[in-house]
């Protein structure tokens, strides 16, 4: 099968949109990602997947920590900025959660330290131990079939 066909197949799976952030030598870096999931409750572990050629890969290795910021449906602009799809004149301002930079108003901010690392194919999976988190109310930003989307509640089936 061709790479494009495989990418299109994977795009059929709707995902949330996240910004992964880390800090190296006082400089904060972020990237948009959707490859994220929970792994364990005890200890509290998550996993992110970073491409072998992404600049973020070495930055996370250097810092040993990162945040995962689950974006709200009002944060498409933030997603586009960190995906390199939109340029901004001013430097993006991050908040802090402990020692970790986080995106303001994200639905969920997870502050993590690298717990383990696995190279699989052309990506590296970072297992992160969650040290702290902040939750907000709202609906997530969704990505499906190459487009940003919003959640829409389905009507519940009528009682029989």
Automatic annotation (TrEMBL):
Gene Ontology molecular function terms on file: oxidoreductase activity
Oxidoreductase in keyword set: yes
Listed EC numbers: 1.5.1.-
Keyword NAD applies: no
Pfam families in the record: Flavin_Reduct
Top EC class, one word: oxidoreductase
Domain Flavin reductase like: 10-150
Keywords: Oxidoreductase
InterPro entries: Flavin_Rdtase-like_dom, NADH-dep_flavin_reductase, Split_barrel_FMN-bd
PANTHER family: FLAVIN REDUCTASE, FMN REDUCTASE (NADH) RUTF
Record-given protein name: Flavin reductase family protein
Biological source species: Salinicoccus bachuensis
């Amino acid at each position: 099968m061709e790479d494009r066909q495989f990418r299109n197949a994977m795009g059929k799976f709707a995902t949330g949109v996240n910004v992964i952030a880390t800090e190296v030598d006082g400089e904060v870096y972020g990237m948009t990602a959707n490859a994220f999931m929970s792994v364990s409750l005890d200890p509290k572990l998550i996993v992110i997947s970073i491409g072998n050629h992404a600049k973020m890969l070495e930055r996370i290795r250097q810092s040993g920590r990162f945040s995962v910021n689950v974006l709200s449906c009002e944060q498409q602009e933030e997603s586009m900025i960190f995906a390199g799809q939109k340029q901004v004149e001013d430097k993006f301002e991050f908040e802090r959660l402990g020692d970790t930079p986080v995106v303001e108003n994200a639905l969920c901010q997870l502050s993590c330290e690298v717990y383990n690392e696995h190279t699989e194919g052309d990506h590296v999976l970072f297992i992160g131990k969650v040290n702290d988190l902040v939750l907000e109310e709202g609906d997530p930003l969704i990505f499906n079939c190459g487009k940003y989307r919003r959640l829409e509640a389905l009507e519940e089936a009528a009682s029989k």
